[in-house]
User: Fold these one by one.
Assistant:
Number 1:
Amino acid sequence: MTGRIVVGIDGSQQSGNALEWAVARARLGGEQLELLNAYTLVPELNFYGYHGVPSQPVDWYVEFSGQLLEAAAKRVRELAPELTCKLTSELGHPAHLLAEASEGADAVVVGRRGLGSVASALMGSVSNRLTSQAKCPLVVVGEDDRPTTGPIVVGVDGSEYGANALRYAITEAAVRGTTVRAVAAYELLHPALRDDPELVARMRADVEQETAAAIAHALDEAKGTDTAPVSVDPVAVEGPAAEAILSHAEDAQLIVVGTHGKGLVRRILLGSVSRQVLNDTNRPVAIIDLPET
């Protein structure tokens, strides 16, 4: 851990929820918060003789951005006066600036959607863009997301991405003092295969064996660190991966998925699944890529 959590701030309620989630997480691990607001200017236009100019001077945008960050910092002081905050206000596209700020961070935290205005359009599509651009774990917090005491649910598929997501889930569970529920999905793509109980049983056994091996390997890795022992409950589910994860995450305090998956014809877990989980759940979601080499 580097001791830094980056939080996207745009003045929307969902960015406020992201901020409060990040504060709660930083209090567990002692990380510093970096609150970032990206502001954009309305460009000067010359369109077939129509000349348009920005509705506000540049100084207005700079002041507005600073005031948003000060309001966010005040909220941090109310919730956790022991935490330190770095305030960053920059001109540019929020996804690009947050991706840059994510370099070397423990996590970048954003709301699922933002204001969607000209003055401040932070989240929404930005959270989707960051799933591929962030250089550290990305945590997306929605409007109705609230902390719980439930387990951390993670998608496991035998790929490097799934293994890294599992490692992250175990580390987070240790910090939070909770358990991990590892969900592995498998699909019988042709309906006729369901009439062969022996085949179904063999596929399920393969999935369970592979999941157990992945869990054992991740737990062995964790033993060599300061991570506290964590209980991991494996679950093998027949059906689409996103549905499998979501059906076992109603009590989750966090869902963890990799950015990509195995890509097998018979059993596909992540990739587009991470985006489906992100869009369809009301729980906080952590999107995990492979570690930087």
Number 2:
Amino acid sequence: MPKAYEVIADDIRRSIREGDRKPGERLPSEEDLARLYKRSVPTVQNALRLLNSEGLIDKQHGRGTFVRRPRTAAVRDNARHQWEKDRASEPLEQRAETGSTEHDTGLELNDLVFYAKYEEIEAPKELADALGVPEGAPLVRRTYRTRYAAETAPFNLVTSYLVREHVAANPDLLDAANEPWPGGTQNQLSTVGIELDRIEERFTARPPTPEEAEELELPPGTAVILLRKISYDTDNRIVDISDVTLPGDRTELVFTTPLERW
């Protein structure tokens, strides 16, 4: 037998999913909902807490409770890496037309707001060991955020690490003012003679930190997907390590593996 608050939540959930309540629409006050369902205000509050935990509604302090607007989804498939490699050798005009976020979301370049920050850091032991450099060697740490202009949260949180010595031959690769770089990292590396041979991606998941939940604007109870992307060049050398935090409520991961025929 469902509890009273679950019955209320079911009815509001149905009205949202069937389109009776539109994204951005304000719900009646808790008192009005209590009268509508002939239940107590605490019972209504329990129902709203459940819907909020499912990401269907947003409670905004001082304004009320609203049907949550679905955010633009991103579909990240493993074919994107070959697409990026092919694109890296295209002429500048073609490279400048689109990028990986557009590939994943279907948005246009003008729909996006991009942020990049570059810093030089000393390699901590874990990164130094992975990149095959001495601990303390200079790395270029690059931080990226890209969001849809109509939204306020980025699609993901990206931190990339390059060995400074690998890219210093092209000073443009040390300056964040050159971002967004047409053709992305694979084209950047190609300017210093580095070709990627393969990319390894490792995924885990966990609850977000408070800082991640705030920046990604995650509904309560939403997990984040952690991606470590390791790029190897044709000499079997790791040339880029990227840590990507993906919001679980708007990211779909698609892996297609061609199988050889018997």
Number 3:
Amino acid sequence: MATDYKIALVGASSLLAKELKECLTESPLAGASFVLLDVEEAQGQLEQVGDEVTVVQVVGENSFEEIDFTFFAGNENLTRKFWRNALAAGSTVLDLSGALDEEPGVLVRAPWVSDGTGSGAGSPDLLTKAVVPANAASLALALMMDRLQEIAEVRFAAATVLQPASEYGKEGLDELHQQTVSLLSFQNMPRAIFDTQVAYNTLASFGESAAANMSRAEGRIRRHYAVLAGERLPELRLQVLHAPVFHGHTFSICIELDRALPIAIIEDALGGDHLDLVLEETDSPSNLAAAGQNDVLVWLKPEPPVERLSGETSRFWLWAASDNLRLAAQNAVECALDMRRLRPHGKVQ
């Protein structure tokens, strides 16, 4: 039970915060009391966490007294402004915004991947300043590599990650929607977030004046995967593209093992906790199929094609999809549960 815990969500009106509320409601922390914090424009909004309806309050320097866990789910500037106040008040900080990625003393974590401790990750202790739940794309990739590495050495792995507009918050979603409507009605398109046409368009970069930054997004995926991989998981060649969709990561991954294995063994490795193996081509993973799903959907395609039931292969493609917001929120809750052992129950350190 977690009835004595007090949890704050900073950036409570964001897309990530909405998913985080649902995941917290389904977790052992559901019995906690919740404080919803955001910028002044969101003040007074009614939000539901579990069975409680809570009013969003304006975040300030003194908002974190007696808070056990603080989730930062808004923009990076909001996190940078207030995370030290949360720490000073004795709260455990979990940053989903990406602001604290390279801050000294802050750990990148994903408890689902080999209990979360790649050689570069380390385990949280009483000196840990804060935790960054690993990026959702990095987590999905590490989960797949982790399972494959259990059955054979992965000699080569290369992945293309297709990112949705929701990776850039509500503003990204709104601009994609407005561009779509504008194109269909032959009007000028808004470009404040992407500084280019993202509607009906797959891109490797955005415009010069874009508020969104794909290079930074790719850098974050690389860093987080490297931490989760440590020296155990394979090196991963990576490129990130922007797909003209609202939600959901999709992945095209090329794998070569050090030896040929029966297809059935590879498929068994890609099933189980947090991975959902798809066997039929007609049910191919997609961002739409992954929406609201807790697991990463995975489909295996041997190269060259062989009989699934009787063939062997060392080279194959994975096509996978996951709900980017759902996976990020789930990982954040798992990180909080992982950090819970460092706190006296019902008390602020």
Number 4:
Amino acid sequence: MKFVYSAIFTSLLLTACQPNSSGSKTTSSSLPSYCADAASQTITSQSIVNLVAEGFVFLEGPVWIESLNSFFFSEMDFNGPQDNGPRSVIHRLTLPAQINVFIDNAGSNGLATDGKDLLATTHDDQGLTRYSLPNKDRTEVLDNYQGKQFNSPNDLAISARGDIYFSDPDWQLGGRENQTGMTGVYHFNVKGDVALVDGSLRKPNGVTLSADQHYLYVGDVDGKIGRYPINTNGSTGQREAFAEVEGPDGMGMDCAGNLYATSHAAGQLHVISPQGLTLALIDIAPQLTNIAFGGPEHKTILLTAGGKLFSIDSPIAGLPY
């Protein structure tokens, strides 16, 4: 496959920010070190959107990994067999602008990191998967709730304590049975227990945590983004209405607690304050799927949209997935 690169992106430099000794990026009581001097302003509706690369099939799930100074993202192929979901590849974008296949036939959608390895929602085995960064070994983390296979896990977020929150719609279910009888949102804690956060949503999609990790945000296909208060033990409270976005997909978070929600249907990026107010609305491209902060000082926003990658230079730093 041939990729076409934008020269604008080649000016990116390597970031010096490192994880803390536990491998976590945040704690519930403090923000990451790169948030220390966070600006109060965000990107605006006039921000310049740069084309990074094109020529892919369908992109999803970007994540920034400090130790490798690279973004990673999934590419799904909807042109082939779909019985077990589309074939998927994980690509690595090494700064300044080199893209290589990192893991072939990964079966992945959303990606995240715990500061040590690459974590993925994987539709081929209908679960959560850990990929070792040094040797790319694949380990199944979780594939069922109360003995019933998940549908096609889509997106995930990892807390500082190591808890994983993820959505399980049925977009990539293919010809397989929906064993759970719902499309749910789940909490998988560090003890290995899995709990249902919400089983009432039509097709939950993007998930992210607030910068202070007090809330879990989840978007649904009906256009509503809700948030769940997170208790000190990682469990969640009742869903609260937060914002509405046409066809919400993946989401991101900046250091000031502003939510970045992608509208798949409209191809727009919404920047929403912690109070639910729209701060900016930016046209990106059709089939806008997801967002992650990374690069120098965590101020490069990488966006996946259909077969294209885009970037925006941000005045404020943000979280890596």
